[in-house]
Amino acid sequence: MARILYFSRDYTTHDHRFFSALAKSEHQVYFLQLEQRGRALEDRPVPAGIERIHWAGGEGPATLRRGPGLLLDLRRVLREIQPDLVHAGPLQRAALLVALAGYRPLVSMSWGYDLIHDAHRNPLWRWATRYTLQRSALMIGDCTTIRQLAISYGMPDERIITFPWGVDLRHFSPVPSKAGSQTFTLLSTRGWEPIYGVDVIARAFVQAARRRPELRLVMLGSGSLAGMLRQTFQSGGVESQVLFPGLVTQADLPRYYRLADLYISASHSDGTSISLLEAMACGRPSLVSDIPGNREWVHPGENGWWFLDTDAGSLAEGILKAVEQREQLPAMGKTARCIAEQRADWEKNFPHLLDGYRLVLSQAQVRNPS
């Protein structure tokens, strides 16, 4: 048994998934939360068996001004817990603090956006990325795109473990498509923030719905672009064809996938999108932006299509194409489910993390024999 300190930016659905699995492992796991960004990102409590650590962080945004105080208190936490291993991410936030604290061994976990987007912001963020990876015994990523980016920042290939975080295939499972329906329902589940391209979805839906009045759009979630989205739908005359259920629980989420004919995502940046995997697990074809992370999962004409990133016209044409080929969608949905079963099963993928822990702990034991 090892003492594992799991240090994450916030407490999200993805963290809950890792905790639920780690709680069943032989390890003693502690949870340290860096910040809290507004609304709660996960409404379920931290699973039993995971000990939450109270410290200077976790109550609000982790600003640069608070950095020295957070670093000082992190060193206190590390002295008191004396973990055998720290698992931290994203790279330029939680993992960087651990690296600055001088702690080893560090297992860094990329959350996708840290390498795809944040690492390219400016020289300081690029330095933070390299600094953290140079001091990481191992890095965990969810797709080939992340692996290649980590290598480009100096992380040796042999110190990277890649596995899709996956989904619970029993919870996200298919039901037969509704037969004889006169409507065609699109589903968006991403947050209403610029990085997820929801503005592109809104403009595309206006274009497509004017030509196909049977179209309906379900926009789950919320975010800073709420006013702009509603204005786009209203001025386009399609507001009555859009449903806004708000934020839904993980328990209710599969129902929305199953009610949809097509899952759509216009995200400008993604590693392996969990939302995409959930849609595939529910047997739904997808229409997604043509970015590297999506290309690893969606194969045009087999389980979905791509459209040009940022191009509302391209997305609109893709929607119209899907409507015209709606008789083929059930077969494409079955293919999507098969891919999810083969590559996105969380129960099969999670053990790769424990393999990584064992590797790092064994290397640490060789370097520092008792």
Give the tags.
about 375 residues, alpha/beta, Rossmann fold, 6-stranded parallel sheet, 15 helices, 13 strands, elongated
List the helices and strands and how they pair.
Elements lengths: L2 E6 L4 H10 L5 E6 L16 E3 L14 H15 L3 E5 L1 H10 L5 E4 L3 H4 L6 H12 L3 E4 L2 H9 L7 E3 L21 E5 L9 H14 L3 E6 L5 H10 L6 E5 L6 H7 L2 E4 L8 H8 L4 E4 L2 H4 L8 E4 L4 H13 L4 H15 L2 H4 L1 H17 L3
Parallel strand pairs: 1-2, 1-4, 2-3, 4-5, 5-6, 6-7, 8-9, 8-11, 9-10, 11-12, 12-13
Helix pairs in contact: 3-5, 7-8, 7-12, 10-13
Give the structure's gist in a few sentences.
This protein has 370 residues and is an alpha/beta fold. 41% of the residues lie in helices and 16% in strands.
Any overview of this molecule?
By secondary structure, the protein is α/β, with parallel strands linked by helices. The chain has two domains: 186 residues, Glycogen Phosphorylase B (Rossmann fold, 3-Layer(aba) Sandwich); 160 residues, 3-Layer(aba) Sandwich (Rossmann fold), CATH 3.40.50.2000. The chain is 41% helix and 16% strand. The strands form two sheets. Strands 3-2-1-4-5-6-7 form a seven-stranded parallel beta sheet, with helices on both faces. Helix 3 links the parallel strand 4 and strand 5. Helix 7 runs parallel beside helix 8 and helix 7 packs across helix 12. The longest helix has 17 residues.
**Counted beta strands:** 13
Order of helices and strands: EHEEHEHEHHEHEEHEHEHEHEHEHHHH
Main sheet characteristics:
7 strands, parallel
Distance between the termini: 16 Å
Number of domains: 2
Number of helices: 15
CATH architecture of the largest domain: 3-Layer(aba) Sandwich
Helix content: 40-55%
User: Gyration radius, to the nearest Å?
Assistant: 21 Å
